[in-house]
Design brief:
Blueprint (H helix, E strand, L loop, with lengths): L6 H12 L15 E5 L2 E2 L2 E2 L7 E5 L4 E7 L7 H14 L3 E7 L9 E4 L2 E4 L1 E4 L5 H14 L4 H9 L10 H13 L4 H15 L5 H10 L4 H28 L4 H8 L3 H8 L2
Parallel strand pairs: 5-6, 6-9
Antiparallel strand pairs: 1-4, 2-3, 4-5, 7-8
Helix pairs in contact: 1-6, 1-8, 3-4, 3-5, 4-6, 5-7, 8-9, 9-10
């Protein structure tokens, strides 16, 4: 399924509840207690249009910028540009955590730009033992001792290191474990974490399988609804453009297509 442009908003909303207390401490990132999601499309700069860059407000007043990287970042100037804009807009201290996937095991932590001293926190998922992580999750599920940390472990297991399993086998095991979770809210959190942060490197087939398994979660249902709405909006805009090309007035175009006068007028500029 093609994701709508604003599906990141859906994912961010559910991620707000997916990071209670210190659930990221399993990766060495303490004190991450999320209050709410914040917009990533800002005046003058837009954080990339992938589905992996998330901005969250923490309970200590700071802004958490989660950045996903599947390639090693040579310098931190790009992240500095994002965070300078976030700081300008929200007037808060910014805390940036870079989640490295693939086989990346090191990356820059500091940038000395003269009067600007900039630092980030890096998480190298390839340093974590995927087999052991899934064994912990499976045992906790069987024992009924599921924790917030297990949620994070399961969602990010796809990007960890495996000695005895292939990536495909790891993916299938993550799917199996996810389906054993009975709590629908918990499944929403898992779906948001995988689709929003850890699943960027999934193949098309894997993403389709994941979406099918998680089809009954609110996250996927909301994304599908957004996709339908976006498709309808595109059709209405196409009809409106055709009518305008034939010289029909704005009011009639608005009435026929259901678009507002402002939306119809805006089509002229594009």
């Amino acid at each position: 399924m093609e994701r709508p442009r604003n599906s990141k908003d859906v994912l961010a909303k559910h991620l707000t509840g997916a990071f209670p207390e210190d659930s990221l401490k399993v990766f060495g990132i303490p004190d991450v207690r999320v209050v709410r999601a914040l917009p990533t499309e800002l005046d003058m700069v837009e954080i990339r249009q992938e589905f992996t860059d998330i901005v969250l407000e923490l309970d200590d007043g700071k802004i958490l910028h989660l950045e996903h990287q599947s390639t090693k970042e040579a310098t931190l100037y790009r992240f500095l540009g994002y965070d300078a804009q976030l700081a300008r807009v929200f007037q808060r201290p910014i805390r940036t955590v870079v989640l490295y996937t693939e086989d990346i095991t090191d990356g820059p932590l500091e940038l000395d730009a003269g009067s600007i001293q900039y630092t980030v926190e890096n998480v190298y998922l390839a340093r974590f033992d995927g087999e052991r992580t899934l064994e912990i999750v499976e045992r906790h599920l069987a024992e009924g001792s599921w924790t917030d940390e297990d949620r994070v472990r399961l969602a990010f297991a796809l990007n960890m290191h495996y000695e005895r399993m292939t990536r495909e086998e790891a993916f299938e095991r993550v799917l199996t474990l996810t389906t054993t979770i009975q709590d629908k809210v918990e499944q929403d959190y898992i779906a948001a974490l995988i689709l929003g942060l850890s699943g960027r490197n999934l193949t098309t087939r894997q993403e389709e399988s994941l979406m099918e398994v998680l089809r009954m979660t609110h996250v996927v249902q909301e994304i599908e609804q957004k996709a339908r709405e976006e498709g309808e909006a595109k059709k209405a805009a196409a009809v409106a453009r055709a009518m305008l090309a034939k010289g029909m007035d704005f009011a009639l175009v608005s009435e026929v297509t259901g678009l507002s006068l402002e939306e119809v007028q805006g089509l002229i500029a594009h």
